[in-house]
């Protein structure tokens, strides 16, 4: 394990771009996290139904069910999305969703994101909120 990753911490990466999804999986796995992947929000909901995640990292724009839709679905279940959810988004997508992000209080990183920046934010979020939200 490299860096200060917390062993046993599980992350779900949700992204429809295969290259970005591979980047997330490899970059976080080599930091010591257990990483599962989904290519859209619907697939993510299925995985969340069957597993517990300490953190979800999701793209904003995806087919079938987008990031905000996934976030709303989890919030409707009573999950603490503010604590356990991070968006990755292109600058125009962040601008289009500024009101949503302010309303739900979820963090967002602008694409492209540097691996060290991503790892730093993930480490801070996971160490700050010890209990997984998605059961």
Describe it for me?
- The chain is α/β, with parallel strands linked by helices and 135 residues long.
- It has a single domain, classed as Response regulator (Rossmann fold).
- Helices cover 47% and strands 18% of the residues.
- It contains seven helices and five strands.
- It has a five-stranded parallel sheet, sandwiched between helices.
- Helix 1 links the parallel strand 1 and strand 2.
- The chain is globular, with a radius of gyration of 13 Å.
- The two termini are 26 Å apart.
What is the secondary structure topology, with strand pairs?
Layout: E1 10-14, H1 18-29, E2 34-38, H2 41-50, E3 55-59, H3 67-76, H4 81-84, E4 85-89, H5 91-96, H6 98-104, E5 107-110, H7 115-128
Parallel strand pairs: 1-2, 1-3, 3-4, 4-5
From the structure above, extract its key features.
single chain; 135 residues; alpha/beta; Rossmann fold; five-stranded parallel beta sheet; 5 strands; 18% strand
Q: Give the assembly state of these chains.
A: single chain
Contiguous runs where pLDDT drops below 50 for at least 5 residues: none
Looking at the structure, the CATH topology is Rossmann fold
Q: What best-fitting shape do the alpha-carbon axes yield?
A: globular
CATH homologous superfamily descriptor: Response regulator
Order of helices and strands: EHEHEHHEHHEH
Over the alpha carbons, how many angstroms does the gyration radius reach? 13 Å
* Spatial gap, N to C terminus: 26 Å
Question: How much helix, percentage-wise, in residues?
Answer: 40-55%
Total domains: 1
Q: Could you describe the largest sheet, including whether it forms a barrel? A: 5 strands, parallel
Number of H/I helices: 7
